[in-house]
Amino acid sequence: MSEIRYDLDQPIEKLMELAREKFGEVKFEKVTIGDIALEILQINDMPKYIDKLVAQAKPGKGVDLPLWAKIWPSCLFLGFFLHQFPFKEKDELLEIGAGVAVIGLVAAKRGFRVTITDIEDDALLFARINALKNNVGEGISILKADFTEDNLGRTYDHVIGCEVLYNERTYEPLADFLAEHLADKPGAEVILAMDQKREGRAFFNRAKDTFSMMRKNFCFTDKESGEEQSINLFRMRRA
Asked: How far apart are CA 126 and CA 16, in angstroms?
């Protein structure tokens, strides 16, 4: 695994300075999931930051958008699901592709040990700030991990993630990563949520030999567009 570019063992004030240095003005947004109230750090003016990235990009080169900073609808649905999920007292969770770590924070607020992982250093910076802001810093570990090639050297009672099927080249490696990191014991489960538009066929074809899977669909109306959208939630246990 790679080292995180930032020193995250600093007070929240110092970490906020790092965030402002990179992204300009940032702010905390309130997110409520059941009776859990969270404050989640967000880039205050995302269009302005994207314009800055475009201006700095070399001719002919693409721009890596900070998609990790978005609070995806699927994360909120998964958060509500985990808020009521019957975890056992000493369960330990692994969140993959955590971004700003909303669902990991929900689990940590419930008193469970959570390991937050992402491949983006900036996401891990925001995740650490969010953990400290929401008073769960001691219950959360943060690691830089690439689920296409890394092995964390241990297993977890539950592996959780939202919108992790965004790049086709990662589908089969992700299925292998989950098989390596989910504990082989009764009740151990992978729980993933994603927009229904993400098919991930290669992922599910690879995973079906290791896991039995259940899918549940949630429909909602997008507040900004007014369009009907759907979220798929997958629960996966060893076959």
From this structure: 9
**How confident is residue 43, by pLDDT bands cut at 50, 70 and 90?**
very high
Residue at 70 is within a domain: yes
Report yes or no on whether pTM surpasses 0.90. yes
**What's residue 55's pLDDT?**
85
Rounded CA-CA distance 71/100 in Å is 8
Specify if 6 maps to a domain: no
Q: What is the largest CA-CA distance in the chain?
A: 54
CATH assignment at residue 226: 3.40.50.150
The CA-atom distances, in angstroms, between 1 and each of 4, 95, 99, 153, 175 are 9, 16, 17, 11, 18
Q: Which residue has the tokens 């009907």?
A: 228
Task: Give the per-residue pLDDT at 65.
Answer: 85
